[in-house]
Design a protein that fits this description.
The protein has 356 residues and is α+β, with helices and mostly antiparallel strands. It is built from 14 helices and seven strands. The protein starts with a helix and ends with a helix.
Length: 356
C-alpha cells in the first residue's frame, strides 16, 4: 500500500457517510443504488432507495412487475430511462442468468442499462474485482490529481483518466478504494470551491500544488439550453378526466400526462393544442381558459407547460400517437406515474378542489 492510498483509505474509514448500500453485499441492492445515484444527489435518492426495495425486494419481483408499477415507484426521481432499463435488465437476468447478476464487469456490461461505471462498481464492491470506477466525482478527483488540462469527456481526456485510475487503484481492496475516491469527490473535492484544507491527499494533488484547482477540471463551454413552450389539455366529460400515456421509447417514455405537445413556429398556444389533440387523439376541440403555466428544467432544455381547459367538439379520442388513454376520476390520479411538470398541475387541481 502506498502512502497516498493509506492516507485516503484512513480518511474514508473515519469520515465516510453511513449509507444503506454500504451496509450490504447484496449485488442487487448495490446495483439499484448505483443506478439511482446517477445524476442524482444522495439525499434525494435515500427515500426512493428504501421505497423501491420495499416494493421490489428481489430481482425476481422486479422482473415480474408491470412497467407501470416500476415507473410509479420511481415517480419523482427523474431520468425515467433508468427505471425502464432496470426493469428490462431484471427480466433478462431472471431469464438468462437464473435471477443472479453476473460476477464480473465484462459480463455485467452485457446487461442493458449497465454501463462501464456501474459494472465496475458492482464487480469491485461485491466481488473484489480490480476494476476502477469513473463516475463524475472520481473523474474530477483524478483530473485534479494529475492536473488534467483537457476536457474530461474528450476521448484523450478519458484515456488519460482511465490510465490514472488503473495506476492509483488499490488492488487488495478495490471496492473500498473506489468508494473512498467517490466519497472524496462528494465531500471534499467539490466541483467549485474544493475543500483542499480538509483533503487527506492534498500534498499528492498536482492541481493543488500548482494552485489551479479552480481551473480543473476543464469545463466544456455549453450552449444556452433551449426553452420550449408546451401545451396540455384538461378535458373533463361526465366528471372524468382524460389522461394519455407516452410511448415507452423516448423522453419520459411510459409515463402518463395530460394530452398536448410542443408549440411550433407561428402557432398560438391554442392553435398548438388543437393541432396536437387532433394528431394524437383524432379529436376536434374547443380551447378554454388557461388553467396554469408550469416552468420546468430538464438536463438539456427547459419548458413552460401551458395547461388549458378544453372540450371535445367532435370525434372520440383514439390511440393514434399515444400508447394508451384513460378517463379517470380525479381521486385516481395518484395511481398513475406522471412527469414532474404534470404533477405540479395535479397538485394545483387538488388544492383548488379542496377549497371548494
Amino acid at each position: 500500500m502506498t502512502h497516498h492510498q493509506k492516507k485516503l483509505l484512513g480518511w474514508y474509514n473515519e469520515h465516510h457517510r453511513n449509507l444503506p448500500w454500504r451496509q450490504t453485499d447484496d449485488p442487487y441492492r448495490i446495483w439499484i443504488s448505483e443506478v439511482m445515484l446517477q445524476q442524482t444527489q444522495v439525499e434525494t435518492v435515500l427515500p426512493y432507495y428504501h421505497r423501491f426495495l420495499s416494493t421490489f425486494p428481489t430481482i425476481t419481483s422486479l422482473a415480474e412487475a408491470d412497467l407501470s408499477q416500476v415507473l410509479k415507484t420511481w415517480e419523482g426521481l427523474g431520468y425515467y430511462a433508468r427505471a425502464r432499463n432496470l426493469h428490462k435488465a431484471a427480466k433478462i437476468i431472471e431469464s438468462d442468468h437464473d435471477g443472479e447478476l453476473p460476477h464480473n464487469a465484462a459480463s455485467l456490461r452485457q446487461i442493458p442499462g449497465i454501463g462501464e461505471y456501474t459494472a465496475a462498481a458492482i464487480a469491485s464492491i461485491v466481488h473484489g474485482e480490480p476494476a476502477p470506477v469513473l463516475d463524475g466525482n472520481v473523474r474530477r478527483v483524478l483530473a485534479r490529481w494529475m492536473a488534467l488540462r483537457e476536457e474530461m469527456d474528450s476521448p484523450s481526456g478519458l484515456k488519460d483518466l482511465r490510465r490514472v485510475a488503473q495506476k492509483y487503484l488499490y488492488r487488495s481492496d478495490p471496492g473500498t478504494w473506489n468508494q473512498a475516491v467517490m466519497e472524496l469527490g462528494a465531500l471534499v473535492c467539490l466541483p467549485r470551491n474544493p475543500r483542499c484544507d480538509a483533503c487527506p491527499v492534498a500534498n499528492y494533488c498536482a492541481a493543488y500544488k500548482k494552485e489551479v484547482t479552480t481551473e480543473i477540471p476543464v469545463r466544456r463551454k455549453r450552449n444556452p439550453r433551449p426553452h420550449y413552450q408546451v401545451t396540455a389539455a384538461l378535458i373533463v366529460e361526465g366528471g372524468k378526466l382524460l389522461i394519455t400515456k407516452r410511448p415507452e421509447k423516448g423522453l419520459l417514455g411510459g409515463l402518463w400526462e395530460f394530452p398536448g405537445g410542443k408549440q411550433e413556429p407561428g402557432e398560438t398556444l391554442e392553435e398548438c393544442l388543437k393541432r396536437e389533440l387532433r394528431e394524437e387523439l383524432g379529436i376536434e376541440t374547443e380551447i378554454g381558459e388557461e388553467f396554469c403555466a408550469v416552468d420546468h428544467a430538464y438536463t438539456h432544455f427547459r419548458i413552460t407547460l401551458h395547461v388549458f381547459h378544453a372540450s371535445i367538439k367532435s370525434g372520440q379520442p383514439k390511440e393514434i400517437q399515444v400508447a394508451d388513454l384513460r378517463w379517470i376520476e380525479l381521486g385516481e390520479l395518484p395511481q398513475y406515474a406522471f412527469p414532474r411538470a404534470d404533477r405540479h398541475v395535479i397538485q394545483k387541481l387538488v388544492t383548488m378542489l379542496g377549497r371548494k
